[in-house]
Each structure stands twice: as structure tokens, then as C-alpha cells.
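Exercise 7b. C-alpha cells:
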């Protein structure tokens, strides 16, 4: 009989929520994240460790497998962009129970991001606020790392314009194209993170005209690629767009060869009913809100994208998934695949196995 279990997952989740989470919350959030990535990267390099991690955290079941974008996924739960910005977890992602990995956002040029602290926890809301500012080692470095990594699961690469505020307008499109040329040939799919400014007044590539121009430029460049070097293209929108705004952008993207949509990126808005005291929210200041408070909005946007995109386009749902019930709601709203990020901070590394075990039962 096939062995499906990730035997340690219930104990690991219990231990994480009861002990490790409290201990890790005593340190700066980004410092903890950096340590976790370094540890996971090291484990990924050593075969014995990788296999041990896989025995503990990987949950396999034939009912979880699916083919999306012509790519075989062993399960539908992926690691969202932002967790592995520079492609360090490619070798361990599958052993940790993920069905796929979205690396990035990667920018054409290296960029340091904003001064720290720039990542904050809101435990009462099971949320985070971040203004990390798109740090990236740059497309060339990430491409070299991906090319030399053994892939356990399909790997999408999320691209963003270099966050240098002096790169605007046509130069912003050229910057996107530079990273596309370097990373498209080695990515299983490409996601364009379009919630980045491309005008001096802060308008982003989510502006309909800017989006249309960017997609036309990408189409032009990709025509020069051989078929097997032209990966499917997806676009990721922010949680701050209204459902009708998503619908219009989905329509115009589909007309320009886009195969799917990732919904959604973080939200700059602060919902009225947050449990975190207002004083604390003011102290933290600006940044993108992620985690539980954005789930309802994400469900709406996934539904809007699916309505317009029809059954053929791909919808990846991300935002506020803390457990199997949330993942099931995303599927019901129309997502083919889902991703987690903030949920890992609150639920621990057993989250993908826990979601997959329940999904397999359903
Ligand atoms: C610290 C942090 C950094 C992120 N960086 C990126 C990024 O570089 N590119 C991107 O497309 N999304 C980024 N995201 C957004 C996530 O991919 C995801 O869309 C969002 O966090 C909602 O999912 P969650 O509620 O499960 O965290 C980031 C999120 C966090 C918390």
C-alpha cells in the first residue's frame, strides 16, 4: 500500500504552536526568516537530510496530483513569492511538503530593499505587515542558482521591476524585459508582479495602459524564444483592486497571451475590524498587510478572475490560508492551485502536509 503519511506533522504543528512559535516571536521577524531559509537551504543540499525532512513533512496521495499549465504537480499547495526571494529553497521545497515553489520577486538588478525593521507580526490578527521593498540578488545570480539546483518540484519565477525609484516609464519596461530574458528560459512559468510603481506619481503596472504595454513588450521578446524556452506567463495582482478592476485586467491580459493569474498580493489598506490595537498599527506604519485579514478579499478576487477567465486559464489563490478549510474555500472560489506564506509563520512547517491530508480526504 502506498505510504501517504507525513507522520510527524500533527506533533510538529503542536510543538510549533505551543513552543517554537513563542520562542521565535522573541526575535526580529526578518532575522528568524533569514535563519529558517539558511537552515532549509543547507538541509536541501545534503541528500540524507533532504530525505529525512521528506519522511517527516511530505504528504503524498494520488488524489492530490494534477496537471496545470501542462505541468505535473504532486499536490496543489505551493510556497508563495516573498519567502524564497533568491531561489535558495528549490532543493528542499518538495521535502517540506510543497507541490511547487514560486521564487521571487526577482528584479533585473540587485537591490537591497528598505532599512530594517521592515517586517512586523500582528499575532492578534494572524497577520504580517511588510515593507521589505523588493530586495533581490538580481536576475543573473538567481538564474545561476536555479540552473545549478536539483528541482524536486515545479518552480515558477516571479519577476518585478527593480525597485530603484529612478527607473520609470519605458526604462521600467526594459528593466522587466531584462529579467524576463534571463529567467524565462529556466523557469517552469513566469509570474509578473505588477503592483510596483512605474511612474513618478506612484502609478503601477496595474494601471490598464501600463499593463497592456508591458504585456505587449513581453510578447514581442518571447516571440524570439524557441517554443521550449517560452514558459507560460501569469500575472499577479494586488489585493487592493476591486473585483471589477481584476475582471478588466484579466480580460486584457488574456488577449495578450497570459495563461493565468495569481490573486493576490498584499494589501496597503487596513480593514476596520483588525484585532490589533490601532496604536500598534500606527506604530508599525505603512506596508503590505498579509495573512488572515485578507482572505475574504482574496476569495472575491479569485472568484472574479475565474468568472472572466473561464475554465481554461489558471488561477492561483494566495492570501490568508491558515489551514485546510481556507485552502478548500480558495478551491471552491475557483483556484486551481494555492500558495501559503504568512500561514507558515503562525502554523509552522507542517502546514502544507496538514492542508494536503485534509484535501486528500475530501
Ligand atoms: C515578507 C513578505 C514578502 C513578500 N514579498 C513578495 C514578493 O517579493 N513578490 C510577490 O509577488 N509577493 C510577495 N509577498 C506576497 C505573498 O506572495 C502573498 O501574495 C501574500 O503574502 C498573501 O499571502 P499570505 O497571506 O499567505 O501571506 C510577500 C509577502 C510577505 C509577507
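Sequence design result:
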Amino acid at each position: 500500500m502506498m505510504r501517504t503519511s507525513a507522520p510527524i506533522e500533527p506533533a510538529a504543528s503542536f510543538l510549533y504552536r505551543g513552543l517554537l512559535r513563542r520562542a521565535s516571536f522573541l526575535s526580529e521577524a526578518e532575522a528568524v526568516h533569514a535563519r529558517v531559509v539558511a537552515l532549509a537551504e543547507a538541509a536541501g543540499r545534503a541528500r540524507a537530510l533532504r530525505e529525512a525532512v521528506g519522511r517527516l513533512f511530505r504528504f503524498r496521495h494520488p488524489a492530490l496530483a494534477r496537471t496545470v499549465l501542462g505541468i505535473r504537480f504532486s499536490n496543489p499547495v505551493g510556497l508563495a513569492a516573498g519567502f524564497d526571494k533568491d531561489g535558495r529553497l528549490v532543493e528542499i521545497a518538495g521535502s517540506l511538503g510543497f507541490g511547487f515553489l514560486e521564487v521571487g520577486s526577482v528584479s533585473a538588478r540587485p537591490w537591497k530593499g528598505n532599512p530594517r525593521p521592515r517586517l512586523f507580526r500582528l499575532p492578534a490578527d494572524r497577520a504580517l505587515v511588510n515593507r521589505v521593498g523588493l530586495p533581490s540578488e538580481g536576475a543573473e545570480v538567481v538564474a545561476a542558482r536555479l540552473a545549478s539546483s536539483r528541482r524536486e518540484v515545479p518552480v515558477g519565477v516571479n519577476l518585478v521591476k527593480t525597485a530603484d525609484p529612478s527607473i520609470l516609464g519605458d526604462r521600467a519596461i526594459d528593466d522587466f524585459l531584462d529579467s524576463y530574458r534571463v529567467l524565462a528560459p529556466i523557469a517552469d512559468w513566469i509570474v509578473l508582479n505588477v503592483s510596483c510603481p512605474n511612474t513618478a506619481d506612484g502609478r503601477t503596472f496595474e494601471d490598464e495602459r501600463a499593463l497592456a504595454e508591458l504585456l505587449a513588450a513581453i510578447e514581442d521578446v518571447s516571440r524570439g524564444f524557441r517554443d521550449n524556452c517560452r514558459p507560460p506567463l501569469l500575472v499577479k495582482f494586488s489585493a487592493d483592486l476591486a473585483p471589477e478592476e481584476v475582471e478588466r485586467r484579466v480580460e486584457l491580459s488574456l488577449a495578450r497571451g497570459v495563461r493565468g493569474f495569481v490573486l493576490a498580493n498584499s494589501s496597503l489598506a487596513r480593514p476596520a475590524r483588525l484585532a490589533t490595537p490601532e496604536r500598534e498599527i500606527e506604530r508599525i506604519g505603512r506596508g503590505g498587510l498579509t495573512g488572515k485579514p485578507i482572505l475574504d478579499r482574496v476569495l472575491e478576487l479569485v472568484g472574479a478572475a475565474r468568472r472572466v477567465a473561464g475554465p481554461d486559464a489558471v488561477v492561483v489563490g494566495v492570501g490568508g490560508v491558515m489551514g485546510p478549510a481556507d485552502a478548500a474555500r480558495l478551491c471552491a472560489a475557483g483556484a486551481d492551485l494555492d500558495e501559503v506564506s504568512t500561514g507558515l509563520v503562525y502554523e509552522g512547517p507542517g502546514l502544507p502536509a496538514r492542508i494536503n491530508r485534509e484535501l486528500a480526504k475530501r
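Instructor comment: The mean pLDDT is 93. Residues 80-82, 85, 104-105, 119, 128, 130, 132, 134, 158, 193, 236, 265-266, 290-291, 294, 318-321, 340-343 surround flavin mononucleotide (CB under 6 Å).
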